[in-house]
Structures are given as C-alpha cells and as structure tokens.
Amino acid sequence: MQPQPRIALPSRVSRLPLPVLIAALAAINACKDGVSLFEPPPPASAHERYAKGLERAGLEETALGRDWMAAARSSIRQPLSVSLPFREAGYFAATEARAVGYAIKLRDGQRLSVTAETNGSDGAPLTIFLDLYRQTGDTANPLDLVASTDTAARLVHEARRDGVYVLRVQPELLRSGDYNVTASTEPSLAFPVSGRDGRAVKSFFGADRDAGARRHHGIDIFAPRGTPVLAAARGVVRSISPNNLGGNVVWLSDHDRGQTLYYAHLDRHNVTAGQQVEIGDTLGFVGNTGNASSTAPHLHFGVYRRGQGPLDPYPFVYRSNARPPAIVADTSEIGTLGRSRAKAPLLASLDREPPMLTTVDAGTPLQIDGAAGSWFRVRLPDGTAGYVASRLVESTRKAVRHATVSSGTPLRDRPAPDASIIATAPGGALPVIGQFADYALVDTGEGRTAWVPVRPVETSPHSATR
Fold first, then answer.
1. Nearest in space to 208 (alpha carbons), one of 221, 217, 196, 195
2. What CA–CA distance (Å, rounded) separates 227 from 230?
3. Position 378 in a domain
4. Which terminus in the chain has less CB density within 10 A, N or C?
C-alpha cells in the first residue's frame, strides 16, 4: 500500500482532542451524503447532468457522444432567428446526434413560455432538453444559462433585461422521435386597470414632457374616473404620500421581483401604507390629480428597479393576442431527403426581414429537419442550416436523370474529396437524385445513397423512378 501524504496541521488544531479532530476532518472531506466538498459543484441543468452521465459511462469518447456534445455547442453558437409566437414541428433521428438553436428577442418584463411535445418512434416518451441562454456580449462568456428543463415540465423564464436569448432543443442519445416546440410571451405583471388592456395605453415610456425638459418614466392608461386601479403584483404598500406631479399615488413593493411599482393621478386611495396586497386587489381609483388636472382621467404606471432606475412598463403588462402561424408545410416530409425544385433563397431566420444565407440551386439535396408555417428547416449537404419555402422543395423519390458511373469510382458519404469512401461503384447506370457543387448524389440501391464526382459521370437523357 502506498503511504498516504501527511497533512501538516496548525499547532492550535493539533492540540485538539482526537475525537474532535477526527470529526473536523470528516466534515472537511465529506458532506453529509458522502460527496467530497472538494469535488466540483453539481451540474446546473438537466442537460449538464445528462452530459455528466455520458462522461461517467465513457460514452463521451465515442463518435456519437462527441457528435452530441459538438451539436449542443454549435446549436447555440449559430442559432436560427425566429419571431414570437413561434411553432415548429421536427424530427430527431437516433442515427444522428442533433440539436437546434433558436435566437429570440425578449424585452425586460416579458415572460417566455416554451413547451415541447414529443412522440418517440418506439412509443416510449422521448426526453428533450430545453435550455435558454442570454447573449451577454462578453467575448469571454458570450452565453449565460438562465433557464433549463426537460420535457417533464414547461420552460418559463421572466426576462430581466432586453436582449437576444438562445433556446436550445436537444434530445437524448440513440432515440428517434417527433417533436413540436411552441414558444410565446406573456406579461409578467397583471394589467393595473380593471377591464382594460394594452389598447388603453395612449402615452408611452420615453415620450417628451415639459417641452423636452424631461422624459415620461411610465405609461398612461386611460379609463373613466373611478375605474378600479389594481395591484399588478403581490407585495406591500410602501407609501401613499401625495406629490406635486403624481397627485394621489401608491408605491408598491413587488415581492417576487425586487422592484417597485408606481401608481399616480389616483382619484382616491383604497389602501394604507404597510398594507399587504395580492394580485388584483384594488389600490385606488382612476383620476387626474397632480399635474394631470387638465387631461382626461388616466393612470400613470411606472416600474422602478434599484440600480437601473425607471424601466419601460409596457412589456411588463402588454398581452399579445397573436398566435403562432399554423404549420401548412407538409410535415410528412420531415426527416426525409428533399430536393430544391428551382433556385431558392435559404434564409437565416423567420423574422420579418430575414437575411439570406445563400441561394440554393435547383436539384440540391435538402435534409428536411423541421417545418414552421409554410417553411421547411433544412440542411444543405455541407451542413449549412436554414429555412426554405416548402413549395420550392420536392421529393427525391423520382430521379432527375440516370448516370453511367465507371467501375471502381469511389462512393463517398459527403460531397467532398476527403469524405469517407463507403464503397466503390460496380459500374453501370445509377439514378441521380440531386447535385451539390461538383458532386452528384446517386441511388446505389436498397435505399442507400452516395456521392460521386460529376466529371466521371456520364448522364443519359432519360429519367427514372426508384
């Protein structure tokens, strides 16, 4: 047995009674459950716990394990941008380690809600990990994990600052299945005027006041005099002391968010300082006291956060009635290999003004991974991912032509000269189902495909069906 290294103890510690010393060392070296305190902290998310499980099982060193980790990283580094509300249907194959990332813009005060419905190909539940990151703008730490779950629960996150957030969707290894992801936003606060909604807001945050001498630090919600003004969050009334600008006001501490809600121009109060209130409790009634005496009755509503000052309250209370576009693309094609029927733009996002990644030539093979609205999410043979109009995609069940391939021609798994050779051609005519760059994708029989250089391929003028 190798001798154990000796630990030198300070003189005062070494004079402790032996039982006390043993107990102290035990407390330092092990937690109550026997886990060493010197070990790294446990993973923060279900995805990380799963990755640690792969590591303990030795699977991270396998090709599929490495691909799974690589897919997790690349999906959040190069996400596809989408506008909310959003819905997409997709498919994950057990033979590939895949993940997809969506870039989403959120406002401070919005609550993001994401659900993923899954259907494993073997009939058993398919676990999909949902992870939400915020882009920080810091090159050393560009992404900050803010929420995470698996499909046992919905992912919900209240944004605490404006910015771009990245949602990653990734399944467990070696499982195939369909999924439907839906993402939408809702306000984090209840609307503060009874019977009204965002349409009653007529003056917005940042508008000029006093001929530009100051800015509007809230929103104005118009309603008849006497309309109940409601607690938008549970909390405690800090103050109801009137002031010159606001007239009759209520300052409400929001317990759950560490911020303060400000209600001004009330006709009269219905609470006292120090009172605990719940969401929907009546704080007072709409009026036009203070400097609003010459305007129609309305509530000035503000949100303040320590260290940040006034925030735009509109995202905190605005509820959109928009619904995600219905999926009209043919979802039966998801998970199959399609082909562009004409030149088509490949888009980097489904935003209102989406940037174009590239133009896809007619006859390009497209792996169809998902469908959103009238769009397919596809991968080009070089791995580039994006959205293409589903009407411009056709099935590859029908060949575009036949080609005579010379005997001994290498059949490769990718359209690249350094791609792995999976077989050699016996020679003869093969159906061509697509082309990318200088390579043709041919059907080698029994549902298998391979890439061959275009030059040694002699094409025949007729087409055929597989």
1. 217
2. 10
3. yes
4. N
- For residue 56, the surrounding DSSP H or E stretch is helix 46-56
Smallest CA-to-CA distance from 114 within 73, 157, 172 is with 157
- pLDDT for res 29: 38
Q: How far does Cα 405 stand from its chain's mean position?
A: 45
Domain of residue 273 covers 209-310
Please give the Cα distance from 240 to 258 (Å, whole number): 19
What residues contact 417, with CB distance under 8 A and at least 6 apart? none
Task: Determine the average pLDDT of the residues in 314-334.
Answer: 96
Write out the H or E segment, with its range, that includes residue 66: helix 63-77
Q: Check residue 315 and give its pLDDT.
A: 97
Q: Residue 25's CB: how many other CB atoms inside 10 A?
A: 13
> Looking at residue 121, what is its pLDDT?
85
Alpha-carbon distance of 261 to 200, in angstroms, equals 18
d(CA 96, CA 349): 23
DSSP-derived 3-state class of residue 301: strand
Q: Do residue 51 and residue 132 come from a single domain?
A: yes
Q: What is the pLDDT of residue 25?
A: 33
Among residues 310, 340, 366, the one where a domain terminates is: 310
Q: Are 236 and 275 in contact (CB under 8 A)?
A: yes
Written as one string, the DSSP assignment of 312-378 is --HHHH------PPP--S-GGGTTSEEEESS-EEEESB-SSSPPEEEEEPTT-EEEEEEEETTEEEE
Residue at 221 is within a domain = yes
Neighbouring C-alpha atoms within 13 Å toward the C-beta of 244: 0
CB 403 within 8 A of CB 96: no
pTM: 0.84
